[in-house]
User: Which sequence fits this backbone?
């Protein structure tokens, strides 16, 4: 009986131990996975909070929690039906809603700053969250238009020169096989680079960039973007509209404001599993957000102008009506990929901005509330 | 004698063996019960955390909608100062659907300027003698309401004065 008991004890012990061990390992594995997903979710949610905080207050910040896990496949996706969401292609944690407009390029640490497009009568605010990057410019023609493109682009990229910023966004030139660090042999901060750009092209002409740019973002400015590396931008026409191209993509990207250039340049040429570049994703998100809002803001400001025209001083009334008429020309649905629609849009926006400036000059609108 | 002794020992060995098996089974049952209890506790803890997160998210959404509206130049003149003419124009020109595409569904906003007694809704023809703007409709039968008041400024365009006001944001399911 002792022997039978011993055998029973052994078999029973082995079966029970294996069962318990298997169950514990499976459960702890599942528990760890759930906790990891939870933490990923928490990190994305806290990113949305930080972005909103920067959007509201304008106080820039570093966001460093992305270093805990891999968020490189995450991007903000806008749809027509609902509010935008942060989508992460390689994770179950996805679809985190984000109301704040944010130009987001993932990285281990990102700098979040605020930027805006000033239309005079309205302003489109956006948070920009970008990792440490060096933008390498390759202006092939020595023209003022080309240098204006660079100036416009750099002005709308966050300034990370503060000591507390762990993220560094810097700038350099590329000329043929050489990367030119024009700020004492090192990449420039935003303000230094802008002061170099402000002196104009000074007859400087560059050769197409053949240097090894490593992880830097190459931006070529040229009237002809035949065989391109990185991002290539045609200087805009008199209406402020132009085309841009992304290496590895057959599409032509129409740009009509500096944020389009920022979206393309910050995004870069990296592709996801579906063959879409980061540049394309950020550009599409930015425009799916901006275009409907311009239309809505134009409707609201047009109605507002009509509403107050009668109650305003006599010289203001006709100007308000004129502003309403121009804003009414902005259609409710705008195709941002159509260059002709962008011509019309920019014409109307520029005209409305001028009329609004007249209202400010006449004292019809308070200057301290001007944008 | 020996047989007797053996005969006497044999049942006691059997009983001892049985009791050891019982002891063993009992121990296993306790261990399994303890593991199940830990698992139940951890699952319950996780569920509590998710419920708390859900509540926090709703509260956060209220603050988010409030902050977004205060920061958007479609509603304000900058520095979180609401423009009464813009608010009246929004009510006249925009549907709730338009704003729901920006801020999601199931929310309601009311802005009240405190420079007038009582509440007079701002319709197109009542402007500027009115002081309440409602964006999206207040649903009486909505469930899980969560709302918050924010102190704001309202710029009165016609009189060129700035009044104190209250922004009320509510979300529901």
Assistant:
């Amino acid at each position: 009986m002792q022997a039978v008991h011993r055998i029973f004890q052994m078999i029973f012990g082995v079966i029970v131990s294996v069962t318990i061990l298997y169950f514990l390992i499976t459960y702890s594995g599942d528990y760890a996975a759930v906790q990891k997903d939870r933490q990923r979710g928490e990190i994305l949610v806290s990113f949305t909070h930080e972005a909103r905080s920067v959007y509201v207050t304008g106080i820039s910040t570093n966001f460093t929690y992305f270093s805990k896990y891999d968020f490189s496949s995450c991007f903000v996706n806008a749809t027509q039906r609902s509010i935008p969401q942060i989508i992460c292609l390689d994770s179950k944690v996805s679809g985190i809603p984000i109301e704040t407009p944010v130009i987001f390029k993932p990285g281990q640490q990102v700098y979040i700053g605020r930027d805006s497009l000033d239309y005079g009568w309205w302003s489109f605010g956006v948070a920009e969250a970008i990792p440490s990057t060096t933008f390498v410019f390759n202006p092939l023609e020595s023209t003022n238009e080309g240098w204006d493109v660079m100036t416009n682009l750099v002005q709308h990229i966050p300034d990370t020169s503060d000591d507390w910023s762990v993220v560094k966004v810097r700038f350099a030139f590329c000329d043929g096989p050489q990367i030119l660090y024009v700020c004492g042999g090192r990449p420039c901060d935003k303000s230094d680079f802008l002061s170099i750009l402000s002196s104009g092209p000074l007859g400087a002409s560059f050769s197409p960039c053949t240097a090894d740019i490593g992880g830097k973002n190459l931006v070529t400015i040229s009237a002809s973007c035949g065989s391109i590396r990185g991002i290539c931008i045609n200087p805009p026409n008199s209406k402020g509209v132009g085309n841009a191209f992304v290496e590895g993509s057959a599409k032509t990207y129409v740009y009509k404001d500096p944020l389009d250039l920022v979206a393309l340049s910050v995004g870069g040429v990296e592709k996801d599993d579906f063959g879409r570049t980061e540049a394309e994703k950020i550009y599409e998100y930015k425009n799916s957000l901006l275009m409907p809002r311009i239309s809505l803001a134009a409707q609201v400001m047009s109605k507002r102008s009509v509403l107050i025209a009668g109650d305003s001083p006599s010289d203001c009334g006709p100007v308000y009506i004129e502003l309403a008429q121009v804003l009414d020309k902005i259609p409710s649905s705008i195709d941002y990929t159509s260059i002709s629609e962008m011509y019309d849009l920019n014409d109307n926006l520029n005209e409305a901005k001028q009329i609004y400036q007249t209202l400010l000059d006449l004292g019809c609108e308070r200057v301290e509330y001007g944008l | 004698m020996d047989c007797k002794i053996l005969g006497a020992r044999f049942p006691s060995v059997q009983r001892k063996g049985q009791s050891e098996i019982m002891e063993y089974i009992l121990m296993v049952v306790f261990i399994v019960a303890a593991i199940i209890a830990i698992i139940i506790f951890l699952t319950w803890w996780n569920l509590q955390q998710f419920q708390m997160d859900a509540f926090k998210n709703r509260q956060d959404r209220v603050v988010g909608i409030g902050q977004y509206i205060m920061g958007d130049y479609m509603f304000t003149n900058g520095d979180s100062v609401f423009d009464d003419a813009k608010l009246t124009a929004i009510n006249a020109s925009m549907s709730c659907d338009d704003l729901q595409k920006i801020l999601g569904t199931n929310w309601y906003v009311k802005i009240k300027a405190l420079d007038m007694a009582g509440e007079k809704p701002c319709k197109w023809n009542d402007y500027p003698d009115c002081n309440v703007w409602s964006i999206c409709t207040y649903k009486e039968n909505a469930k899980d309401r969560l709302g918050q008041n924010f102190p704001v400024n309202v710029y009165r365009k016609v009189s060129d004065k700035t009044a104190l006001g209250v922004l009320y944001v509510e979300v529901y399911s």
